[in-house]
Design a protein that fits this description.
The protein is an all-alpha fold and 88 residues long. It is built from 6 helices and no strands. The radius of gyration is 11 Å and the shape is globular.
């Protein structure tokens, strides 16, 4: 999440691609990256995978677990997740 928070979206996506297993929150992080890269279809697909992994995934739950202290980063993530289609 540190890579995505710093705007290093390509690097964050590459890190997730190398993971042996991707938890639902990581798909949410990937959705944020895809929104940041202006890839709406991929962002929606990442949200669909997050919801398939954990059907109750929503913006509020993701943000509750988001460790970033910066209000600006939290708002950027929240807006990106909503744009990607994650229910609030």
């Amino acid at each position: 999440m540190v890579l995505a928070a710093s705007g290093k979206y390509q690097e964050a996506l590459a890190m997730h691609a190398r993971a042996a297993e991707i938890p639902h929150w990581a798909y949410c992080n990937m959705a944020v990256c895809h929104v940041g890269l202006c890839q709406p279809e991929e962002a929606h697909q990442a949200v669909a995978k997050a919801r398939a992994t954990y059907t109750h995934t929503c913006v509020a739950d993701f943000m509750d677990g988001e460790p970033h202290e910066s209000a600006e980063t939290r708002e950027r993530f929240k807006a990106a997740l909503i744009k990607a289609g994650l229910p609030q």
